[in-house]
Amino acid sequence: MERFTDFEFGVPWVMGLFHQDWMHEADTAAGMLKKHFAEESDQEILAVRRDAQALADHLDPEALEALWSAGAECLPANASNASAEWTRTIIALCDARLSEKADIEPLTGPDLEDGAGYEATIVAEIDRLGFFDPCVRQALTACARRCSPDLALRVLLTVLTNTPGAWLSQEQYARMEAIGSALHYGEFLVDRVAYLIEEGPPPSVPVRRFTDADFGVTWLMRAFRPAPSGSLPASPLHTLRRRLADESDPRATLALRRDAQYLLDYLPAHTSQTLWLAGTGLAPSFFSPDTPEATSGKAWMQTVIDACDARLAGLDVEPLSGADLADGGNRNRQRVDEIDTIARLLAPEVEQAIIDCAWLRSVDLAVRLMLRALAQAGTALSPHQYETLEQLGSGLLCYGECVVADIRYLVHES
To answer: CA angle, corner 266, sides to 246 and 330, nearest 5?
Structure first.
């Protein structure tokens, strides 16, 4: 007997809807779900409701936050921060959709299989995935033991697709495939992680970046400063091109382009504007309808990308690799909380922009933007706060010795 679909279903299906472009579909997370729920079968909505009810009834808020954060690529921070409420919202949306029809057939047969006989097996598979954050492993284990082993395995498969550095041995994949078959999964549910099969763990990455100094969009910010009184500022495009022309290492251009693409794709225009102004000390008039290349934050980031492409045109350049790709991940609650202990020293709108950057895309980019904002604001730091930044930079983010040290002068003992 087979389930109602050959593909992922239930809450993991909902997690998969929150990819990086979901905001093009609706203004809110709930609005996006309403749209998809209206188009899906009754069985899909019943499966989502069943999963969501199990999560809401049996997991604590911390475990829910860990699963939603790890399973959804771009879930809004406000939904992940209030994961219990978000899970109840999903239940309510399911109820609203199901109330539109009479005499809906309940789930039966294989669609009710919860994998009770596979709890120990699935928990053992979770324990073997050492590249998962410990809080994610704990939440998946709690899901297997308190909700159902079936739900835990399906969430695990979704988390695998979103975890940097994830890999599976042929034996691990074969075991998951066998469990999936026993739980009547369709042919494409476990198969979607087959691309992660490796003969062994990926090789360790180099621990040094291409430069010991600042890089990326924060490197570009250093070329911009308010014009002296009575003088005309250079055009943004002229300053950008000059900065690129003065740099001989093409990796500096690649790093800048990468940052600009992140800001363009993942953050609203007003957020990237806030970050740019905080990191340069420029007035809001930098973004002006009279400046075609910088009418908005997104327009300026597109200008930066185009200038980088022009600078790289015709060059045989190796892509960034190893430590130059270390971004600290996203949706990492521990790191975001560490960043916020320092970002809260800045203006509220700047703090929120930095947190959004860290949560939605890159801890690395958020930390570098925060360093620039702190320098521009002249914000005093305690030795402990500076130590936190040093530990983030030298460990997780592979920064050179000058990146964080550039703001050491802000440290005050008292």
So the answer is: 95
Query: What is the phi/psi pair of residue 411, to 5°?
Result: -75, 130
Of the candidates 148, 146, 144, the residue with the CA atom closest to the CA atom of residue 126: 144
Region of residue 378 (left: phi > 0; alpha: psi -120 to 50; beta: else): left
DSSP structure class, residue 392: I
CA distances from 33 to 53, 90, 161 (A): 16, 8, 21
User: What's the distance, CA 11 to chain centroid?
Assistant: 19
Q: What is the pLDDT of residue 17?
A: 93
Q: Is 318 exposed, middle or buried (0-12, 13-18, 19+ CB in 10 A)?
A: exposed
**180: exposed, middle or buried (Cβ count in 10 Å: 0-12, 13-18, 19+):** buried
Q: Please give the average per-residue pLDDT across 209-218, as a whole number.
A: 95
Six-digit token string for 297: 């934050």
Structure tokens at 348: 């509220």
Provide the pLDDT confidence category of residue 96 given band limits of 50, 70 and 90.
very high
Question: Helix crossing, 134-142 with 149-162: angle to 10°?
Answer: 160
197 strand-pairing partners: 168
Taking the C-alpha atoms of residue 140 and residue 133, their distance in angstroms, rounded to an integer, is 11
Query: Could you read off the pLDDT of 289-300 as tens digits, one per residue?
Result: 988 999 999 999
- How many angstroms separate the CA atoms of 166 and 164, rounded? 6
Q: Which two tokens stand for residue 364?
A: 């690395």
pLDDT at 1: 76
The CA dihedral of 294, 254, 362, 34, to the nearest 10 degrees, is 60
Please, which residues bridge with residue 381 across strands? 411
